[in-house]
Structure formats: C-alpha cells, structure tokens
Design brief:
5-stranded antiparallel beta sheet; alpha+beta; 10 helices; 289 residues
C-alpha cells in the first residue's frame, strides 16, 4: 500500500500503480487483483451500462517482448471463443504503453471458495461436467489452458461454472521449444506430470489438473501434497493414483481416467471424460437393489 512504499528506505511510491488507469469508454471502480504481469480492475462499461473486469498490462522498460506477446495471444484466443463455460470477452485494445482486455464480471465467486465450503457428490459431478464442457470447447480450437486450478474456475451469479484466466494458454500447434525448458507455468498442486518435467503438453494435461480438482471436490483434500515444490512434483510423477474413500467409490473410474500418469492411459479427450461422467451420473441415479 501507500504507507509501505513511502516507509521503505530510499524508495518512493510508484505513481502509476496508485493512479487509477484511464481506458477510454470505461470507468474504473476498484482494483480486484494483481498478478506478476497484470493488474485487474472492476470497471463500468460506459457505453453499455454494465460492469466488466478489466485486465491491464502496462509496458515497462524491463518487460521483454514475450510478456507483451503472451497478453496479445490471450486476447486473440479468448476473443475468438464463445461458449457457455468459457469467460466472455467483450473488448480488447492496445496503446503505446498499455494493453487491456475487457471481460464479463462473474459474480458467483471461485470454485476455490466453493470447495472450502464443501461440495456434495452430485454438485461435484455437475461442476466436473461443466468444466469438461468448457475444456472440450477450447481444445477443439487448439488451445490447452495449462493452468487449470480452482481459482481459475469461476461461477456466474446463476451458478454456471466458467473457465477463466488464459494467461498461460498456448496453442497446441506452437512448438514446445518456445517455452523455456523446465518453466513451470501451472500451479504445482494441479500440474500434470508432463508439465512438471517440461515435456510436450496436450489437452490431457488439462484433464489431469481437473482430476486433481475433482478428488479435492469430493474429499476436501488434495491427492498430492508435500512440504516443498520438489516433493509435490515427485508425487505427481511417481505416487499411485489415489483411491477414493468408500463413500465415493462410484467416482473412482473418473479419477483413474483423469489422473493416470501416462498421457496414453488418460481419457482420450474431454468428450470421453463427459461420457464417463454421464455413466456415473446414471449409476448414481438408479435405485439401489
């Protein structure tokens, strides 16, 4: 904050960080997030009388072109998608020193908050189905999300689950060599074994991450934990696929098909996952004999 910056020896507050950004056509309401490369604001869209989320990347002298390029890619990828379970992009633009992305404001919080409150089996299955539908849509367009985690799965006020934050999304046709070897872009708890080793990433990496989330939705615990990054990554690579506690046994086929260590042993795609979700749903609905 202002005080911390002012009190730091030999450092002055950075006016651009404190000043509200000016984006023509929008009025900033408040800052709602800060990432390594961008700031996120709640804003009024003056032309359409609606609230939006504005994501801004400010060009700094220490930014290399890849930061700027990644943001431009995010705009292009998302702007071309229209799907119920993918965040809606309304507008984007670039200036000499600023780029912005205006997207829908999702009023229902994140899946992280929902998991922390507790999720029923039927709710977990429904949320998994919605996430799977969103992944199917982006994968059809040649996009791997690469950072599927509960904080990036948001809810509309209606309760619909939506994929967000494609900042590390990467077209599947871009050679993996363009990502620095060993660069871990995803989040360690949810990262696939192949991502942790810097190997080629396919849509099944997103399914693996979703499998970690599904286990956590059902049980309230992450399947792979550890005291260090190295421990967590080692478990993704070597620990057996976890067994669900007895009350959740009907969901084991889903966990097995998403969390298989080998890509070839996972569900072939999000559509195959969706078919197994439907099968589990039907088995759950049948009266017990």
């Amino acid at each position: 904050g202002r005080l911390g910056a002012a009190g730091a020896p030999g450092r002055r507050p950075a006016p651009p960080r404190e000043a509200e950004p000016a984006v023509p056509g929008y009025r900033v309401v408040r800052k709602i997030g800060e990432g390594g490369m961008s700031s996120v604001y709640l804003a009024d869209d003056l032309g359409r009388a609606r609230q939006v989320v504005l994501k801004l990347v400010k060009r700094r002298k220490d930014h290399d072109d890849s930061v700027w390029q990644r943001f431009r890619q995010e705009c292009a990828l998302l702007g071309s998608l229209e799907h119920e379970h993918v965040v809606r992009i309304y507008d984007h633009g670039y200036g000499d020193d600023l780029a912005y992305l205006a997207m829908e404001h999702l009023g229902g919080g994140s899946l992280r908050e929902l998991i922390d409150r507790g999720v029923s089996q039927r709710q977990a299955l429904s949320l998994l189905s919605q996430a799977s539908a969103g992944l199917a849509a982006i994968h059809r367009r040649g996009i791997v999300h690469r950072d599927i985690k509960p904080a990036n799965l948001m809810l509309r006020a209606s309760g619909t689950l939506v994929l967000t934050d494609f900042g590390v999304a990467k077209r599947m046709d871009v050679p993996t060599g363009e990502t620095l070897h060993g660069e871990i872009l995803g989040t360690p708890y949810y990262i696939s074994p192949e991502q942790s080793e810097g190997r080629a990433v396919t849509p099944q990496a997103d399914l693996y991450s979703l499998g970690v989330i599904y286990y956590e939705m059902l049980t309230g615990c992450r399947p792979f934990a550890g005291g260090s990054l190295a421990e967590i990554l080692a478990q993704h690579l070597k620990a057996p696929v976890p067994r669900l506690p007895a009350p959740f046994a009907a969901h084991q086929t889903l966990v097995d098909g998403m969390l298989a260590k080998r890509v070839s042993e996972r569900f072939a795609d999000a559509a195959a996952l969706q078919r197994e979700i439907d099968a589990v749903w039907i088995r759950q609905a049948l009266p017990r004999s």
